[in-house]
UniProtKB/TrEMBL annotation:
Family statement drawn from the similarity comment of this UniProt entry: In the C-terminal section; belongs to the ThiN family.
Reactions catalysed, as given in the entry: 2-(2-carboxy-4-methylthiazol-5-yl)ethyl phosphate + 4-amino-2-methyl-5-(diphosphooxymethyl)pyrimidine + 2 H(+) = thiamine phosphate + CO2 + diphosphate; 2-[(2R,5Z)-2-carboxy-4-methylthiazol-5(2H)-ylidene]ethyl phosphate + 4-amino-2-methyl-5-(diphosphooxymethyl)pyrimidine + 2 H(+) = thiamine phosphate + CO2 + diphosphate; 4-amino-2-methyl-5-(phosphooxymethyl)pyrimidine + ATP = 4-amino-2-methyl-5-(diphosphooxymethyl)pyrimidine + ADP; 4-methyl-5-(2-phosphooxyethyl)-thiazole + 4-amino-2-methyl-5-(diphosphooxymethyl)pyrimidine + H(+) = thiamine phosphate + diphosphate
Matching PANTHER family: HYDROXYMETHYLPYRIMIDINE_PHOSPHOMETHYLPYRIMIDINE KINASE THI20-RELATED, PHOSPHOMETHYLPYRIMIDINE KINASE
Record key words, sorted: ATP-binding, Kinase, Multifunctional enzyme, Nucleotide-binding, Thiamine biosynthesis, Transferase
Gene3D superfamilies: 3.40.1190.20, Class II aldolase/adducin N-terminal domain (3.40.225.10)
Domain Pyridoxamine kinase/Phosphomethylpyrimidine kinase, first and last residues per copy: 12-247
Protein name (database record): Bifunctional thiamine biosynthesis protein ThiDN
Enzyme kind, highest EC tier: transferase
Keyword Thylakoid among UniProt keywords: no
Keyword Kinase in record: yes
Organism listed in the record: Thermococcus kodakarensis (strain ATCC BAA-918 / JCM 12380 / KOD1)
Any single GO CC term annotated in Swiss-Prot or TrEMBL for this entry: cytosol
Chain's role: Condenses 4-methyl-5-(beta-hydroxyethyl)thiazole monophosphate (THZ-P) and 4-amino-5-hydroxymethyl pyrimidine pyrophosphate (HMP-PP) to form thiamine monophosphate (TMP).
Pathway: Cofactor biosynthesis; thiamine diphosphate biosynthesis; thiamine phosphate from 4-amino-2-methyl-5-diphosphomethylpyrimidine and 4-methyl-5-(2-phosphoethyl)-thiazole: step 1/1; Cofactor biosynthesis; thiamine diphosphate biosynthesis; 4-amino-2-methyl-5-diphosphomethylpyrimidine from 5-amino-1-(5-phospho-D-ribosyl)imidazole
Length: 431
């Protein structure tokens, strides 16, 4: 059964940090978020323009409404205003608290005044698990932090002197190692730099920590898991939000399911054209590949083969069932990410001429032009071929052919923005 996690945080209109990231994080971890709005920010990925502070009484009433109905297992406190500290401290009494002492946005907007920080230290740090980044830990403890050793010192001070239950000093601004002090013990949680957007990392980290605590994990395990969660959210943060993507794993799994269905349906339609298709199936077999936004590639296991007068898929649609088409497709997607599907046919001049007549964009590569070092590397041929064909045409090709490669058999690759488009192109080509 999902556990209730209370989140007291601000809205980020840019959809990167704050409550939106928090709700996604708790949902991605399969627990139930209880969102309490503490502020509304006027914000985009580049700047925070301003903030509307929720009156303390509205925060108090929000918390009361959910406390009366839910068994709350953890509370995450994010962006708050000084005036609300007292109400929050009173209303969250007795709950396990994770306090992310948000003082300024990454872009430099100041949320908490020095007096607010004083109140925070007095009323909310004691008893909480605090998760400051390096600058926040410096402000809270007065310790200048330049090393992991300094992080350890600051974490200890937060617990021993400021009475926090535990402290996680986050190394996102230093070396990606996080330092946890808890129960008189120091834990170093090493991390590696993840490439991607980092707006929202602090919010997702403290909320993931709250969710893992709600699941009943011990603190060191919960911190480790929260850190890995954020690394994934950074790594798969490509896209519009210019921020982390806490639900990448759900999206990836949903896309797996949908892509498998989409390709399976398309293969069925293709097989219905069996008699027309038969003579265009390659000697090595024809395959049909579809990529997800996460660059996972489905294809037909064992390929599609000639069968009497018709054609037949040998096995089911599976992940990574075609190495050649996967590499061709991923290379094409580096230039044109909107291309998602590809199918190979036996080469014939007739098909190439038909493609041109139909107005499809046709390009090619010639293995005789392949540089020696690519040839020797062997596995780079497909990538080199696609890149050569793309650059030759100067725009997105629908068809790429070559006159001898892949077991030396000449081949035509039919690309499309989805599996259906490829089926349609094949239908036009062979009819
Ligand atoms: N580029 C990165 N690669 C890997 N881990 C990172 C990266 N940036 C931050 N982290 C990790 O993300 C978590 C959040 O830390 P960070 O120091 O970024 O918090 P923050 O400064 O409060 O975040 P925000 O910028 O959202 O305010 C930590 O576990 C940190 O180590
Ligand atoms: C609403 C909100 N909370 C937290 C942060 C810190 O990243 C932010 N920029 N906006």
């Amino acid at each position: 059964m999902p556990m209730a996690v209370l989140i007291i945080a601000g809205l980020d209109t840019g959809g990167g940090a704050g409550l939106k990231a928090d709700i996604e994080t708790v949902s991605a971890l399969n627990e139930h978020p209880l969102p309490v709005v503490s502020a509304i920010t006027y914000q985009n990925p580049n700047e925070v323009r301003g903030v509307f502070i929720a009156p303390p009484e509205t925060i108090r009433e929000q918390i009361r409404a959910v406390r009366d109905a839910f068994d709350i297992r953890a509370v995450k406190i994010g962006l708050i205003h000084g005036g609300a500290i007292e109400a929050i401290a009173e209303e969250t009494k007795g709950l396990r608290k994770i306090l992310d002492p948000v003082m300024a946005s990454t872009s430099g907007f100041q949320f908490l005044s020095p007096e607010d920080v004083g109140r925070l230290k007095k009323r909310l740090v004691p008893g909480s698990i605090v998760t400051p980044n390096v600058p926040e830990a410096e402000v809270l403890t007065g310790i200048k932090i330049n090393s992991v050793e300094d992080m350890r010192k600051a974490a200890r001070v937060l617990v021993e002197e400021l009475s926090a239950e535990a402290a996680v000093v986050k190394g996102g601004h230093l070396n990606f190692t996080d330092v946890l002090y808890w129960n008189g013990e120091v834990f170093e949680i090493p991390g590696e730099h993840a490439e991607g957007f980092t707006h929202g990392t602090g919010c997702a980290f403290s909320t993931a920590l709250a969710a893992f605590i709600a699941k009943g994990l011990r603190l060191p395990e919960a911190v480790e898991k929260a850190k890995r969660f954020v690394e994934g959210a950074i790594r798969f943060s490509r896209g519009e939000g210019k921020a982390i993507n806490p639900i990448w794993e759900l999206q990836r799994d949903a896309q797996r399911w949908r892509s498998k269905e989409e390709l399976g349906d398309a293969v069925n339609r293709l097989v219905k054209m069996g008699e027309l298709l038969n003579r265009h199936v390659a000697e090595v077999g024809t395959n049909f590949a579809l990529a997800t936004d996460f660059n996972e590639v489905f294809a037909v296991k064992g390929r599609i083969v000639r069968y009497d007068k018709t054609v037949k898929p040998v096995g089911p649609v599976e992940l990574n069932a075609s190495d050649h088409l996967r590499r061709a497709l991923l290379k094409m997607r580096e230039f044109y990410p909107e291309v998602k599907a590809v199918l190979n046919l036996r080469y014939s001049e007739e098909l190439v001429e038909k493609a041109k007549k139909l107005g499809l964009k046709v390009s090619f590569y010639d293995r005789r032009e392949e540089p020696e070092e690519v040839k020797r590397a062997e596995r780079g041929t497909m990538e080199w071929g696609i890149e050569t064909a793309v650059k030759r045409l100067g725009e997105r090709p629908d068809i790429v052919y070559h006159l001898g490669d892949w077991g030396k058999e000449p081949m035509i690759l039919v690309f499309g923005s989805n599996a259906e488009e490829v089926v349609e192109r094949v239908r036009l080509l062979i009819s």
